Amino acid sequence: MRVLALDHLVLTVADIEATVAFYQALGMQRVTFGGGRVAMAFGRQKLNLHRAGAEIAPHARRPGPGSADLCFLVDLPPEALTAHLGQQGIGIELGPVRRTGAAAPLVSVYVRDPDGNLVELSTEAAA
């Protein structure tokens, strides 16, 4: 067996609507499925959102808001990305800074979502 791709991740969040608004500002789309469950779709992946205290079983042993550290590849160069974040009222925690990605060097900007999850927004950089 070999792993082919990541289909989805689950984020446990305090407020689903605040989380939806944040990730929509980053360009993701809200998806409703399975009897009213909510996810944020992007590319061929999604983030399923579970409300803290009402997680869908089975779930992580200790689910909780603010415990994730995520990296997303985006289609804006760093200067345009920082401008977009400013227009959306999203504060930058760090960056742009050079990082090492799974397949290429990255230039990354770090922000936090409403639960305090660390969200790295990256573009591939020349080596």
From TrEMBL:
Q: Which Pfam families match?
A: Glyoxalase
Top-rank lineage group of the source organism: Bacteria
User: Which ranges carry the VOC domain?
Assistant: 5-124
* UniProt cross-references to PANTHER family, sorted A to Z: GLYOXALASE DOMAIN-CONTAINING PROTEIN 5, GLYOXALASE FAMILY PROTEIN
This one is known as VOC family protein
Q: Which organism is it from?
A: Paracoccus solventivorans
